[in-house]
């Protein structure tokens, strides 16, 4: 009797623990704070809340440090950094989701299948939201393959020329004028190709729109509202969705960079509220770090007392409490995670590991 009972408890225990270990993600939301290094995140918290570790991402249960080096250099740009995260392969700076056999601007490399393309292939809904131009390197690496990040026309045309599924379903971000101009100059007709899908403001998107492409003029649109809208649209797909949200946190303009960390953090919080924690893997990280530091300061004083007169244009800036050089830097960035599969985010990771963490969360195998 006792033995049977112990057996029953063991059975229940095994079922619960194995069941938990095998829980798979339905959705993955990947937040990229572009250039949001550890020091930038720390400064954003102090700037906004007057204390460190006060952001939503600081409450996330799983954390790792992630190397961001490229196939050939220690310091990454957004193209190589994001390619590694979304394809699991390192490439060279300037290259968008092609292998290191590519030569920037000269020769195409092997196209690398992105996590967004894996999701498309399996019938999930997919989207990107960014406050960088929609054809810029970070969003581009999700949906395009080109040998030079500057080829915006060639990049944007891949929205309607997908390699898998029916292509990316939702795009929200700025760069309207230049993206349209360069896409036409590359021999494409975006209005015809995106007939019924193309909008120039969030308000113009009708409630029933299933696959909107929203090109904005102003990078300072309401990122939180855009994330809300995107999740509502993408979540109508019963198979699940992949969404990448980028906030450009370069602190070349110091106060703006810090505010954009706060903006992203608010969007992470909202995404967590709008999705089930048992269904959605949320990852927050950066494609590379940036040379920004707090070098001084008191708890009872503002971090940026000189905010009104910040010398944002200079290559090097040294203020009362912070200093920065206008360069990307090589050291690790944070990955914070919650939801199914988040337990794999621990210790020291390579940028390429994040791709496999997303695949594993869905329970998918790599097939190139
Ligand atoms: Zn970047």
Describe this structure in words.
It is a single chain. The chain has 368 residues and is an alpha/beta fold. It has helices spanning 2-21, 38-49, 78-87, 115-121, 137-143, 152-157, 176-185, 190-193, 223-234, 254-274, 351-362, and strands at residues 27-34, 62-67, 125-130, 170-174, 198-199, 213-216, 241-248, 280-285, 289-294, 316-318, 322-329, 333-338, 347-350. The chain has one domain (28-293, 302-362): Alkaline Phosphatase, subunit A. 33% of the residues lie in helices and 20% in strands. It has a 10-stranded mixed beta sheet, sandwiched between helices. Strand 10 (316-318) and strand 11 form a beta hairpin. Helix 2 packs across helix 10 and helix 9 runs parallel beside helix 10. The longest helix has 21 residues, at 254-274. The protein starts with a helix and ends in a 6-residue tail after the last helix. The mean pLDDT is 94. Zinc ion binds next to helix 3.
Q: What is the CATH class designation?
A: Alpha Beta
Query: In total, how many domains does the architecture comprise?
Result: 1
Major sheet: arrangement of strands: 5-6-4-3-7-1-8-12-2-13
End-to-end separation in angstroms reads: 54 Å
Bound molecules: zinc ion
On the 0-100 scale, what is the average pLDDT? Answer: 94
Question: In the CATH scheme, what's the topology name?
Answer: Alkaline Phosphatase, subunit A
The CATH architecture is: 3-Layer(aba) Sandwich
- Give the helix tally: 11
Total E-strand runs: 13
Give a quick account of the main beta sheet: strands, pairing sense, barrel closure: 10 strands, mixed
List the uncertain runs.
none
